[in-house]
Amino acid sequence: MGIQDTIAAIATPPGVGGIGIIRVSGPKAGEIGRLLFRPAKEPCPFATHHLYYGDLVSPETGNMLDEVLITLMRGPRSFTGEDVLEIHCHGGPVILRSVLESVLRAGARPADPGEFTRRAFLNNRLDLSQAEAVADLIMVKTRRGLDACLAQLKGRLSEKIHSLRESLMEIIVLLEADVDFPDEDLDILPVPRIAVMMESAAAEIKVILGTYDDGRIFREGLKTVIAGRPNVGKSSLLNRLLGEERAIVTPIPGTTRDFIEEAVHIEGLPVRLTDTAGIRDTGNIIEQKGVERVWEKLSGADAVILLLDGSEELSGEDRALLESVEKKKCIVAINKSDLPPRMTEEDVAKMMPGVRPIRISAKYGDGMAQLKEKILDLAGRERSSSENDVVIGSLRYKTAFEKAAELILKASESLLSGFSPEFAALDIKEALRHLEEIVGETTSEDLLDRIFSAFCIGK
Ligand SMILES: Nc1nc2c(ncn2[C@@H]2O[C@H](COP(=O)(O)OP(=O)(O)OP(=O)(O)O)[C@@H](O)[C@H]2O)c(=O)[nH]1
Ligand SMILES: [Mg+2]
Q: What is the CATH architecture assignment of 131-211+391-440?
């Protein structure tokens, strides 16, 4: 498999722009540059990390392709660690395509998705967690998500893994000293001390795991489901929060039958809103199917906005819903505050002690600021971590950390119950392997393929 070959791709997004960049990486990068580029001023030594101005021409026909700026960054001081050529063209799709074709004819091959970053990883310019941060960085949707990605790119997660690794190595050395010299009656195995070391490593991992919910929400958005009886104004609320008439609103109960999902930002927090079918017992089979699926949605939600119609009395169906929704992720909103009230906050509080409902009018927009505040609170705004902290948002990291913590605790238990330290050492080594997988030190080709194929081409 040739890391020896030279790859090329358009690195800027499709469409029209001020400039568009073709990126080339590999041993032929310099040669390709020299073949296609006609400098405006001689001499043009192609000094590394310098920008040169001139024309790009097709070597076969001599025809001009574009007027460009070109730079060669010699390895290993480049993104991939190889020689990297960047051609800054005018940002038109036809120009970029024709320049890329010439580059390919001059000896490069098209890059696979994520291949530049993969090479950076293989050449030790980045570890795997940093490589993934590159992919996340360009997709990130919020300022705080960006901070977390930048911290990861700068190696905060990697540092954490390395310090955990040091601790685990130390434990292994202590455990194996006993295995290696069992006859030397040194009585050196300080079981309680090792157990403390193990527990503190596990505790450190637990702290990192505790950031997953935050991290995931800032990567994927807060999954928020609007639920309630038919006709309470769920679709009106979705439209209000979106600022457009997305869902159909009618006075007929049972209007919404399927989910409507839309994304909004609330003060930088990405929120994935789902409008659902009104929950009620119904003989209509289509509507009933919709209602069944609402319950599934509710159990998978990060937040539920339970909507009530304040112009009516609290009904049996409302009560059933109030009882069944998980309190800690629920915001109760009494809608239609513009109409004469027939439901009080106390009625609701009786059903759900500790919950303070808010009054809103989806139709006229009253109470929206308060509702947004509540959503932000649920997302754990006050828990917000500093940009230097490690925040993990990826399921891959979460799983690896969980397995490592489990194995460390298992090792500590076995040691404390008097089993041979050999067993504990095996568990700790396995835990180490899971941690190393995060930074890509013990990662299978398969996993690498999966991770990098999710990148875009040119990254
Ligand atoms: N006065 C008043 N009417 C409202 C308000 N919100 C919604 N409505 C009206 O209530 C009716 C039902 O609104 P929808 O948004 O369709 O209600 P829904 O909960 O989505 O209903 P289903 O899809 O049938 O479950 C419509 O006639 C809305 O105009 C409000 O704040 N004040
Ligand atoms: Mg509706």
A: Up-down Bundle (1.20)
Write down the CATH superfamily of domain 7-126.
Probable tRNA modification gtpase trme; domain 1 (3.30.1360.120)
* Ligand 1 atom at minimum distance from 339 CA: 1
Tell me the CA–centroid distance for residue 378 and ligand 1, in Å: 25
pLDDT digit string, tens, across residues 287-333: 778 778 888 888 889 999 999 999 999 998 899 889 888 887 899 99
Going by alpha carbons, the residue nearest to atom 1 of ligand 1 is 336
Contacts of 411 by beta carbon, 8 Å cutoff, 6+ apart:
171, 198, 423, 424, 425, 427, 428, 431
Per-residue pLDDT reduced to its tens digit, 162-188: 999 999 999 999 888 765 665 555 556
Domain boundaries, given as residue ranges, for the chain: 7-126, 131-211+391-440, 219-383
Q: With 70 as the cut, is the pLDDT of residue 51 above it?
A: yes
Q: Is 278 in the pocket of ligand 1 (CB under 6 A)?
A: yes
> Which ligand 1 atom is nearest residue 229's CA?
25
Residue nearest to atom 7 of ligand 1 (CA): 233
Which atom of ligand 1 approaches the CA of 228 most closely?
A: 19
For ligand 1, atom 13, the nearest C-alpha belongs to 233
Question: 335 with 358: CB under 8 angstroms?
Answer: no
- Fold for 219-383, please state it: Rossmann fold (3.40.50)
Classify strands 7-10 and 109-110 as parallel, antiparallel or unpaired: parallel
Residue nearest to atom 26 of ligand 1 (CA): 251
SS3 call for 425: helix
Cβ atoms 5, 80 nearer than 8 A: no
- Report whether residue 396 contacts ligand 1, using a CB cutoff of 6 Å: no
